[in-house]
Design goal:
There is one protein chain. By secondary structure, this protein is α/β, with parallel strands linked by helices. The protein has a single domain, classed as Spore Coat Polysaccharide Biosynthesis Protein SpsA, Chain A, CATH 3.90.550. It contains seven helices and 16 strands. Strands 4, 6, 8, 9, 11 and 14 form a six-stranded mixed beta sheet that branches. The protein has a four-stranded mixed beta sheet with strand order 2-1-3-12, with helices on both faces.
Protein backbone atom coordinates (compact mmCIF):
# COMPACT_ATOMS: atom_id res chain seq x y z
CA UNK A 1 0.00 0.00 0.00
CA UNK A 2 1.41 3.34 -1.11
CA UNK A 3 0.13 6.82 -0.29
CA UNK A 4 0.40 9.03 -3.39
CA UNK A 5 -0.34 12.75 -3.52
CA UNK A 6 -1.87 14.92 -6.25
CA UNK A 7 -1.37 18.63 -5.61
CA UNK A 8 -2.66 21.44 -7.86
CA UNK A 9 0.15 23.95 -8.33
CA UNK A 10 -0.82 27.56 -7.68
CA UNK A 11 1.67 29.13 -5.30
CA UNK A 12 5.11 27.56 -5.01
CA UNK A 13 5.84 29.60 -1.88
CA UNK A 14 2.90 27.95 -0.11
CA UNK A 15 4.11 24.53 -1.18
CA UNK A 16 7.66 25.18 0.00
CA UNK A 17 6.49 26.63 3.32
CA UNK A 18 3.74 24.21 4.33
CA UNK A 19 3.43 20.97 2.43
CA UNK A 20 6.89 20.13 1.14
CA UNK A 21 8.64 19.97 4.55
CA UNK A 22 5.98 17.65 5.98
CA UNK A 23 5.96 15.39 2.91
CA UNK A 24 9.72 14.98 3.29
CA UNK A 25 9.24 13.43 6.73
CA UNK A 26 7.15 10.49 5.53
CA UNK A 27 7.97 7.43 3.45
CA UNK A 28 5.24 8.06 0.91
CA UNK A 29 4.76 7.09 -2.71
CA UNK A 30 4.73 9.53 -5.60
CA UNK A 31 3.97 13.24 -5.27
CA UNK A 32 2.47 14.88 -8.35
CA UNK A 33 2.46 18.67 -8.57
CA UNK A 34 0.11 19.48 -11.43
CA UNK A 35 1.51 22.63 -13.02
CA UNK A 36 -1.09 23.40 -15.68
CA UNK A 37 -0.48 24.27 -19.31
CA UNK A 38 1.76 27.28 -20.11
CA UNK A 39 -0.29 30.43 -20.59
CA UNK A 40 -3.47 28.78 -19.29
CA UNK A 41 -5.20 28.77 -15.94
CA UNK A 42 -6.94 25.40 -15.78
CA UNK A 43 -9.37 24.85 -12.95
CA UNK A 44 -8.81 22.35 -10.20
CA UNK A 45 -11.05 19.73 -11.84
CA UNK A 46 -8.68 19.52 -14.82
CA UNK A 47 -5.57 19.50 -12.66
CA UNK A 48 -6.78 16.70 -10.42
CA UNK A 49 -7.81 14.57 -13.41
CA UNK A 50 -4.39 15.12 -14.97
CA UNK A 51 -2.82 13.88 -11.75
CA UNK A 52 -5.01 10.77 -11.80
CA UNK A 53 -3.96 9.99 -15.35
CA UNK A 54 -0.31 10.37 -14.40
CA UNK A 55 -0.87 8.02 -11.47
CA UNK A 56 -2.42 5.42 -13.76
CA UNK A 57 0.79 5.31 -15.77
CA UNK A 58 2.43 3.75 -12.71
CA UNK A 59 1.69 0.32 -11.23
CA UNK A 60 -1.26 1.60 -9.22
CA UNK A 61 -2.78 -1.11 -7.04
CA UNK A 62 -6.37 -1.31 -5.81
CA UNK A 63 -5.30 -0.77 -2.19
CA UNK A 64 -2.96 2.13 -2.96
CA UNK A 65 -4.17 5.46 -1.59
CA UNK A 66 -4.48 8.67 -3.59
CA UNK A 67 -4.61 11.95 -1.64
CA UNK A 68 -5.90 15.14 -3.28
CA UNK A 69 -4.32 17.92 -1.30
CA UNK A 70 -4.04 21.71 -1.34
CA UNK A 71 -0.46 22.96 -1.37
CA UNK A 72 -0.99 25.16 1.71
CA UNK A 73 -1.63 22.13 3.95
CA UNK A 74 0.87 20.88 6.51
CA UNK A 75 0.63 17.24 7.54
CA UNK A 76 1.39 17.84 11.20
CA UNK A 77 -0.23 14.70 12.64
CA UNK A 78 2.65 12.38 13.64
CA UNK A 79 0.37 9.38 12.99
CA UNK A 80 -0.89 10.63 9.62
CA UNK A 81 0.28 7.61 7.65
CA UNK A 82 -0.85 5.04 10.22
CA UNK A 83 -4.30 6.59 10.57
CA UNK A 84 -5.05 6.83 6.87
CA UNK A 85 -3.80 3.29 6.24
CA UNK A 86 -5.88 1.95 9.15
CA UNK A 87 -9.08 3.45 7.75
CA UNK A 88 -8.68 1.98 4.28
CA UNK A 89 -7.36 -1.37 5.54
CA UNK A 90 -10.11 -1.95 8.07
CA UNK A 91 -13.04 -0.20 6.38
CA UNK A 92 -13.36 -1.60 2.87
CA UNK A 93 -16.64 0.25 2.34
CA UNK A 94 -14.96 3.67 2.58
CA UNK A 95 -14.43 5.31 -0.78
CA UNK A 96 -13.48 8.81 0.32
CA UNK A 97 -11.82 10.11 3.49
CA UNK A 98 -11.51 13.67 4.78
CA UNK A 99 -11.06 15.56 8.03
CA UNK A 100 -14.12 17.86 8.08
CA UNK A 101 -17.55 17.65 6.48
CA UNK A 102 -21.30 17.27 6.91
CA UNK A 103 -23.88 14.51 6.93
CA UNK A 104 -26.09 16.33 4.45
CA UNK A 105 -25.86 18.72 1.52
CA UNK A 106 -28.49 21.45 1.49
CA UNK A 107 -29.77 24.13 -0.85
CA UNK A 108 -27.37 26.60 0.79
CA UNK A 109 -24.43 24.85 -0.91
CA UNK A 110 -21.73 25.18 1.71
CA UNK A 111 -21.25 21.96 3.69
CA UNK A 112 -20.39 24.11 6.73
CA UNK A 113 -23.79 25.88 6.54
CA UNK A 114 -25.44 23.38 8.80
CA UNK A 115 -26.33 22.86 12.43
CA UNK A 116 -23.50 21.58 14.67
CA UNK A 117 -25.11 18.15 15.06
CA UNK A 118 -24.73 17.59 11.32
CA UNK A 119 -21.09 18.65 11.08
CA UNK A 120 -18.04 16.46 11.70
CA UNK A 121 -14.31 16.91 12.32
CA UNK A 122 -11.67 19.53 13.03
CA UNK A 123 -8.61 21.23 11.55
CA UNK A 124 -6.01 23.84 12.46
CA UNK A 125 -6.80 27.00 10.50
CA UNK A 126 -4.15 29.59 9.76
CA UNK A 127 -4.64 33.13 11.01
CA UNK A 128 -4.29 36.07 8.64
CA UNK A 129 -0.66 36.64 9.68
CA UNK A 130 0.38 32.97 9.60
CA UNK A 131 3.18 33.54 7.06
CA UNK A 132 5.00 35.84 9.47
CA UNK A 133 3.96 34.44 12.86
CA UNK A 134 2.94 30.82 12.21
CA UNK A 135 -0.22 31.42 14.24
CA UNK A 136 -3.30 29.24 13.78
CA UNK A 137 -6.45 28.33 15.69
CA UNK A 138 -8.23 25.04 16.33
CA UNK A 139 -11.35 25.02 14.18
CA UNK A 140 -13.78 22.42 15.54
CA UNK A 141 -16.72 21.91 13.16
CA UNK A 142 -18.37 19.05 15.01
CA UNK A 143 -17.66 15.82 16.90
CA UNK A 144 -14.04 14.65 16.56
CA UNK A 145 -13.25 11.04 15.74
CA UNK A 146 -14.11 8.50 13.07
CA UNK A 147 -17.48 8.92 11.35
CA UNK A 148 -18.69 7.32 8.14
CA UNK A 149 -22.13 8.93 7.83
CA UNK A 150 -21.10 11.89 5.69
CA UNK A 151 -22.55 13.23 2.46
CA UNK A 152 -19.72 15.65 1.74
CA UNK A 153 -16.29 16.71 2.96
CA UNK A 154 -14.01 19.72 2.64
CA UNK A 155 -11.78 19.46 -0.42
CA UNK A 156 -8.57 20.72 1.16
CA UNK A 157 -7.79 17.05 1.96
CA UNK A 158 -9.46 14.10 0.26
CA UNK A 159 -8.19 10.53 0.12
CA UNK A 160 -9.46 7.64 -1.97
CA UNK A 161 -8.14 4.32 -3.27
CA UNK A 162 -6.82 2.96 -6.53
CA UNK A 163 -9.86 0.69 -6.63
CA UNK A 164 -12.30 3.61 -6.56
CA UNK A 165 -10.38 5.41 -9.30
CA UNK A 166 -10.30 2.24 -11.40
CA UNK A 167 -14.09 2.17 -11.17
CA UNK A 168 -14.12 5.45 -13.07
CA UNK A 169 -14.63 8.14 -10.43
CA UNK A 170 -13.27 11.41 -11.82
CA UNK A 171 -13.68 15.16 -11.46
CA UNK A 172 -16.44 16.36 -13.78
CA UNK A 173 -14.79 18.71 -16.28
CA UNK A 174 -17.84 18.60 -18.57
CA UNK A 175 -20.23 20.16 -16.06
CA UNK A 176 -17.71 22.41 -14.31
CA UNK A 177 -15.71 24.03 -17.09
CA UNK A 178 -14.75 27.08 -15.03
CA UNK A 179 -14.17 27.89 -11.40
CA UNK A 180 -12.62 25.94 -8.53
CA UNK A 181 -15.70 25.27 -6.43
CA UNK A 182 -17.73 22.16 -5.61
CA UNK A 183 -15.16 19.71 -7.00
CA UNK A 184 -15.15 18.09 -3.56
CA UNK A 185 -18.93 17.76 -3.24
CA UNK A 186 -19.36 16.43 -6.77
CA UNK A 187 -16.50 13.95 -6.43
CA UNK A 188 -17.98 12.74 -3.14
CA UNK A 189 -21.41 12.22 -4.69
CA UNK A 190 -19.76 10.17 -7.44
CA UNK A 191 -18.14 8.00 -4.76
CA UNK A 192 -21.49 7.55 -2.99
CA UNK A 193 -23.14 6.78 -6.33
CA UNK A 194 -20.84 3.77 -6.69
CA UNK A 195 -21.96 2.44 -3.34
CA UNK A 196 -19.10 3.51 -1.08
CA UNK A 197 -19.23 5.61 2.08
CA UNK A 198 -17.59 8.94 2.88
CA UNK A 199 -15.78 9.22 6.21
CA UNK A 200 -13.77 11.64 8.32
CA UNK A 201 -11.08 10.64 10.79
CA UNK A 202 -9.22 12.39 13.58
CA UNK A 203 -6.24 13.37 11.40
CA UNK A 204 -5.03 16.82 12.40
CA UNK A 205 -3.85 19.08 9.58
CA UNK A 206 -2.84 22.71 9.35
CA UNK A 207 -4.50 24.67 6.55
CA UNK A 208 -3.18 28.13 5.76
CA UNK A 209 -6.18 29.30 3.77
CA UNK A 210 -9.27 30.65 5.49
CA UNK A 211 -11.45 29.93 2.47
CA UNK A 212 -11.85 33.58 1.50
CA UNK A 213 -13.49 33.74 -1.90
CA UNK A 214 -16.17 31.15 -1.33
CA UNK A 215 -19.72 32.29 -2.05
CA UNK A 216 -18.52 34.73 -4.72
CA UNK A 217 -20.26 34.67 -8.10
CA UNK A 218 -18.27 31.70 -9.55
CA UNK A 219 -19.13 29.75 -6.38
CA UNK A 220 -22.84 30.48 -6.87
CA UNK A 221 -22.70 29.44 -10.53
CA UNK A 222 -21.06 26.10 -9.75
CA UNK A 223 -23.49 25.52 -6.88
CA UNK A 224 -26.42 25.73 -9.26
CA UNK A 225 -24.67 23.44 -11.74
CA UNK A 226 -24.05 20.88 -9.00
CA UNK A 227 -27.62 20.96 -7.75
CA UNK A 228 -29.03 20.63 -11.26
CA UNK A 229 -26.72 17.73 -12.11
CA UNK A 230 -27.72 15.64 -9.11
CA UNK A 231 -31.40 16.56 -8.91
CA UNK A 232 -31.65 15.65 -12.61
CA UNK A 233 -30.47 12.19 -11.50
CA UNK A 234 -33.51 11.99 -9.22
CA UNK A 235 -32.02 13.13 -5.91
CA UNK A 236 -33.84 15.61 -3.70
CA UNK A 237 -32.40 18.18 -1.33
CA UNK A 238 -31.12 17.81 1.29
CA UNK A 239 -28.88 15.00 0.02
CA UNK A 240 -27.54 12.41 2.48
CA UNK A 241 -25.62 9.16 2.09
CA UNK A 242 -28.92 7.29 2.47
CA UNK A 243 -29.98 8.61 -0.92
CA UNK A 244 -27.37 6.32 -2.48
CA UNK A 245 -27.35 2.52 -2.54
CA UNK A 246 -24.60 0.94 -0.43
CA UNK A 247 -22.17 -1.23 -2.34
CA UNK A 248 -22.54 -4.95 -1.75
CA UNK A 249 -19.75 -7.49 -1.21
CA UNK A 250 -17.26 -4.86 -0.08
CA UNK A 251 -15.63 -7.36 2.27
CA UNK A 252 -14.54 -9.73 -0.51
CA UNK A 253 -17.61 -11.97 -0.20
CA UNK A 254 -18.07 -13.48 -3.64
CA UNK A 255 -21.40 -15.00 -4.68
CA UNK A 256 -21.24 -17.81 -7.23
CA UNK A 257 -24.31 -19.06 -9.08
CA UNK A 258 -24.36 -22.72 -10.17
Amino acid sequence: MLINFIIPRNDQNNFKTFLEPTLAKGGFGKVYQVMGSPGKNENIFIKYNAGIEALFKTELQDNDICVFLHEDIALIDPSFQAKIETVFNEKKDIGLLGVTGAVEFTQHGGWWMNTPDKLRGHILQGKENIMSTGESFHLIKGPIGYFDDLACIDGCFMATTGKVLREGVRFDTDTFKEGNDFYDIDFGFSVLERGYKIAVADIILLHKSSGIGSMAEPWKINKEKLIKKWTDKGLKLPITKNDFKLKQNVNNIIEIEI
